[in-house]
Amino acid sequence: MLALQTEQSELIKAHEALTAEKQQARDTVVILTKELSQLQGENAELKVETAKLNKQLIQTATKLASASVMPVMEKVVEEQVVIPVQEVVPAPQPASKPAEVALQGESEAQEEAEDEVLTINVAIMPQGDEFELELPAEISGMDIISELIDAEVLTEDMNFAINLKRTGEGIGGDETLKGIGVRNGDLIVIDTE
Description:
Layout: H1 2-79, H2 96-115, E1 117-125, E2 129-136, H3 141-150, E3 161-164, E4 187-191
Parallel strand pairs: 1-4
Antiparallel strand pairs: 1-2, 3-4
């Protein structure tokens, strides 16, 4: 009988110890849940801050790219020579000359097109980040991705699909914005999934 009472007493002590451990585990779970909630809130704040910094970085990169285009355009304007109409006397030219003049006009038009800058919006999905960029019309899809990787908005290990929202048309790596008909104010969607 004494052995039975001793065993019962030990069982009661073991039960009390287990109950205390169970309560301690519950308290730990409550504390960890609160810490997790706090960390999730901090993570969300960091993501918002990162998105803001990325936007500023893109805007700065765009301004730098635009600034590098502007001196070239200013140089072209400075080098233009204006000849008064009274001094221009058309000279007779052989048949091959008009074709040369036409080709010169086309190359000048191409140079002007290369200097054209488009203001577009770029949305990164599924992150939902959106930026306004000023880009050369002749920039390719791959160059856009490279610029965004350099600006740490995208990473090299991501897959990319680039589409013009207005038309739904995809932009290939070698295709230029102008080549697929991108206009000022258009939205380019970059899907990273």
